[in-house]
Amino acid sequence: MHTNVTPDTSADTSPRTSPHDSGRVLLNSDMGEGLGLHEFGNDEALMRIIDVANVACGYHAGDPDVMERTVAMAAEHGVAVGAHPGLPDIVGFGRRRMVLTPAEVESIILYQTGALTAFLAKHGLELNHIKPHGSLYGMLAGDEELMQAAAGTALQFGVPFFGLAGTAHESVCRAMGVDFVPELYVDLNYGPAGELLIQRRPAPTDPDAAAERVSRALAGKPVLAVDGTELDIRFRSICVHSDAPNSVAVATAVRAVLG
User: Fold this and answer.
1) Backbone φ and ψ of 106, nearest 5°
2) 3-state helix, strand, coil in the chain (%, to 5)
3) What pLDDT does 168 receive?
4) Domain range summary for the chain, segments of one domain joined by +
């Protein structure tokens, strides 16, 4: 499924507007996943560690006040911000698949990304990229028609798309001329075909194991799937989820490896 474990540093995979764009591997995190008084993540602490924030845009989490606070924190810490649109399923936190047409996929991504850009403009920031959340991310990885709708939105905004190498994320972006940033995950397991195994409820990740995965990948060694299958995963960015119980410790361990 994947062809090369070496970090992908080709020019067309770098975020165009990232203030951290120096050819190195960037650390990203899914953020702003709260509603009202309820917070789901360690955003404030992580903003001091990461390079790029993927901000929820309201459909799976992230109301207007949460978006405002998250973008303000990113601006304060010099963190680039991308849209993290999800399925319209707050109860399921966007982690339950839905049957959608390409037109519906385009509309929900366009709507959510457009909302986020208003907050970015307020704080003098530009949209850095689009990275779908949860089940939408997985649906697009395996369906070229749906992914064409998503890539078209990234093309409209003129930003890269964050996704999984070797899937429809990459092939459709390449075909449509959309910059593609492949990711490596350290707090999710991979199946034998290179697929991500999404958990409905995040569990703690061993920070040492996360650091070891990154060290191996940077050294050109394969990442191991849950059954021991060796996977060659190309990546330009590494994701740490903010809502895991010990996400700050995991991000700190990864940051130490990346430098």
Assistant:
1) -60, -45
2) 35, 15, 45
3) 98
4) 11-16+23-258
Do 166 and 191 contact (CB within 8 A), yes or no? no
Spacing of C-alpha 15 from chain mean position: 12
Q: For tokens 């959340």, what's the residue?
A: 133
Structure-token pair, residue 93: 């936190």
What amino acid is encoded at 220 in this protein? G
The answer to whether the Cα torsion of 181, 194, 204, 214 is positive or negative is: negative
End-to-end CA distance of the chain: 29
Which CATH number does 11-16+23-258 carry?
Answer: 3.20.20.370
Question: Tokens 């986020």, residue?
Answer: 116
Instruction: Please name the residues in contact with 121: beta carbons below 8 A apart, sequence gap of 6 or more.
Output: none
Distance CA 180, CA 123 (A): 26
In angstroms, the CA 67 to CA 57 distance is: 7
> Which positions ≥6 away from 24 have C-beta within 8 Å?
258
Are the C-beta atoms of 77 and 106 separated by less than 8 Å? no
The interaxial angle of helices 102-122 and 144-157, nearest 10 deg, is 30
> Rounded to an integer, what distance in angstroms lies between the CA atom of residue 181 and that of residue 163?
6
pLDDT in tens, 95-133: 999 999 999 999 999 999 999 999 999 999 999 999 999
Share of the chain above pLDDT 90, in %: 82
For the chain, what is the radius of gyration of the CA atoms?
A: 16
Q: Are strands 52-56 and 26-31 parallel, antiparallel or unpaired?
A: parallel
Alpha carbons 8 and 184: distance in angstroms, whole number: 11
